[in-house]
Design goal:
MetI-like fold; two-stranded antiparallel sheet; 302 residues; 2 strands; mainly alpha; single chain
């Protein structure tokens, strides 16, 4: 009798497990297309770039030789490429900081508005993305060029006696990147701040905290995950930027993205271009690790 009941129970348990196993198999099958896409269009190209970075090419015959040399990485230490790397990092960090300084107040202001006004403000933030990235960048050429609206306004106010001569400088590239990437900073911060209820701020005020103390000890820690996410998106995008330096830099101020494209498309030195790309990837990986730690720290504080 007991053995019969035990067999029935085992049979029921096996039948109960079957739908669960089928559900698990279905979830894995749903993951398969994304996994294949990741392997085919990210992992395989990344491996090819890494392999090419260890090879050599004859600039006369353009024949590849895989001697597994690190000379391409040593060539990055040339002052020309090293200065470009430093310039790219400085512009990327400056862009990220400016986007954070401008975007945080805007995101905070939007998150404190009634729901109807929040939608309108978010729409205004997103509207620039409806226009082509290249068109938006070329529009800045008109605004920043000598004789353009900004130059004419500065001369009318007597801020400059001649022209600004601002276009085709690192400053114009920085302005272009801040303008292009600012929405990518505002949106993650807004999402984080929108979760901070008014009751939290009112509780801090009731406990005698000043506005500055409430911001420093309540608002900023709770917004840190969004701030870190925005800084990561903006920083990575700005470091490898190609279009903005090409248009607003006029070919005079290069970033690593321009040099990599030039090595592949014009010079034909695939190994050196691959080495620069892998070095840039290493720098970004270190930045991502640091951003991940900062985000976990912010979430723990919150």
């Amino acid at each position: 009798m007991v053995e019969g009941l035990g067999r029935i129970q085992v049979g029921l348990t096996s039948r109960e497990r079957l739908p669960s196993e089928r559900g698990s198999l279905a979830r894995h099958l749903l993951l398969l297309p994304s996994l294949l896409w990741f392997v085919a269009f990210f992992l395989v190209p990344l491996v090819l770039v890494a392999v090419h970075s260890l090879g050599q090419v004859s600039l006369v015959t353009f024949q590849m030789r895989f001697g597994w040399t690190l000379q391409n990485y040593r060539d990055i230490g040339d002052p020309l490429y090293l200065h470009t790397l430093v310039r790219s990092l400085v512009l990327a960090v400056s862009t990220t900081l400016l986007c954070a300084l401008i975007g945080f107040p805007l995101a905070y202001f939007a998150s404190r508005q009634p729901e109807r006004w929040q939608r309108l403000l978010l729409l205004l933030v997103i509207v620039p993305f409806w226009t082509s990235f290249v068109v938006r960048t070329y529009s800045l050429v008109y605004l920043l060029q000598n004789g353009g609206p900004i130059d004419a306004f500065a001369r009318r106010l007597g801020l400059v006696s001649k022209h600004l001569d601002f276009l085709y400088t690192p400053g114009s590239i920085g302005v272009g990147m801040v303008y292009s990437y600012l929405p990518l900073m505002i949106l993650p911060i807004y999402v984080a701040l929108d979760r901070v209820g008014r009751s939290v701020l009112e509780a801090a005020s009731d406990m005698g905290a000043s506005s500055a103390s409430t911001f420093r000890r309540v608002v900023l820690p709770l917004a840190m995950p969004g701030l870190v996410a925005g800084a990561t998106i903006v920083g990575i995008s700005a470091t490898g930027e190609y279009v903005i330096p090409e248009i607003l830099g006029g070919g005079k101020t290069l970033m690593l993205g321009n040099i990599v494209a030039d090595q592949f498309l014009n010079v034909g030195n695939y190994p050196f271009g691959s080495a620069i790309a892998m070095a840039l990837l290493g720098v970004l990986a270190i930045a991502l690790v640091g951003a991940g730690r900062a985000r976990r720290s912010g979430e723990a504080t919150a």
